[in-house]
Amino acid sequence: MEFNTLIANAKDTSKVTIPGGWTQGRATFGGLAAALLYQPMEAALETATKGAIAETPLRSMTISFVAPAEAGELDTRSRVLRAGRSAVQIEAHASQGNQVVTAALASFGKPRQSTVAVSPDAAPQFRAPDECEALPYIEGLVPEFTQHFDYRLAAGAFPFSGSSEPRLGGWIRFRESAGPVTTAHLLALIDAWPPAVLSMLKDLAAASSLTWTLEMMPTAHHVKAERSADSGDWWQYLAEVEQAEDGYGAIRARLWDASGRLMALSRQTVTVFG
Hints:
Elements (H helix, E strand, L loop, with lengths): L1 H11 L2 E4 L4 E2 L2 E2 L1 H19 L9 E8 L6 E12 L3 E10 L2 E11 L23 E2 L14 E8 L10 E8 L8 H9 L14 E11 L1 H9 L8 E11 L2 E10 L4 E12 L1
C-alpha cells in the first residue's frame, strides 16, 4: 500500500518523494507530513535507546506547519536533544529547497509507577458505520488525499453547511488496509477529517492547520505492540471547536478504536480563510 511504502522510505533515508494524490489544496495532507517526519524521529529513538523503542513509546508530539509541503522531494532531519533514563526528547524538520516546511518536537517516555490514574473520556455512542452517511469523494471539490480514507458521518454536519453545532465526527478507516496499525497510521487517521470549523461556514473556504499537538495514549502503544488492530479497521473520531475568532480556530479531537478504547488526543490551531 502506498502509505506504508512512503513511511518506510522516510525511516530508511533522509530524502523521500511525496507522490501526487495526497494533497489538500496546494499542500500535502498534514497527517502524512507528520507521519513522514515521525519516521526519522523513531529511527533516532532506536539509536538513543539501543533498540529499546518499544519500552520508550511516544507520549506527545507537537508539529508546526511552517509552509506548504508540495508533492516532490522532501528532505528530513532529526536530532536527539536529550536522552535520559526515562525520557527522550527529539526534534525534526522537513525541508523543500531552502525552506523548512514542517517542524516537530516529540517526547518519548518509559512507563513510571504512579498512584495517579484518571480514566479517559468515554467513546461517543455512534450509530454503526453502515447506518451513517458516507462522505463522498468528489474530484476537484474535496482534498485529493481523502480518496485514501473511508468516512462515515455520525456527529455534526457536512462542511460548508452553515451548522451551528461546533462538533464533527464519525467513523474512519483507510480505504485499503495498510496492515497492522502503527503510530504513523494513527497520526494520519486522527488528522484526516476536515477541520470541524468548516461545518459552521455557509460558503466554500480554505482552512489549514497552523500547529498541532498530539498526545498518544498507553492503549495505542499496547495495540501497536500486540499488532492487534489493523489500519483498515473502523476508528471513531470526534472533534469540537472550542473557540474561533479572527480567522483562527482552536479544535480539540479524540480518536478511539471500534470498541471504545481511547487512542489519542489532539489539539490544533487552524487558520480559516473565510
